[in-house]
């Protein structure tokens, strides 16, 4: 992983607006930022519902919107922080090396998993019935 600009602190990058390695790791960085913003939106919604009812509705909404806006800026800056951006660039490069299964292999594997889960469920049902019968036979269960 490239280690340029490692001496730069995260607090120093908060006020800058530039992009770090603009065209590298673009998809992973965008999806990471979207995920961070989605978590922030759910958190702001929870905060909005948790704020005291004595507070005016405008103030409740203002606080929630401020949390979302600050979170959007932080998500944008986090994915452009050099060390984290280099990590995400490396992740995208490694994902590109993965050999993905074909649709036919995927369907066959899914069928195998489903059939095995049904067979295991039936086996556990059989064990349950046998143990219930045994415990009732020795009068351990009185149902």
Automatic annotation (TrEMBL):
GO terms for molecular function: protein transmembrane transporter activity. GO terms for biological process: intracellular protein transmembrane transport; protein secretion; protein targeting; protein transport by the Sec complex. The gene is secE. Belongs to the SecE/SEC61-gamma family. PANTHER family: PROTEIN TRANSLOCASE SUBUNIT SECE. Its main location: membrane. One of its GO terms (cellular component) is plasma membrane. It is found in: Membrane. Keywords: Cell membrane, Membrane, Protein transport, Translocation, Transmembrane, Transmembrane helix, Transport. HAMAP family: SecE (MF_00422). This is Protein translocase subunit SecE.
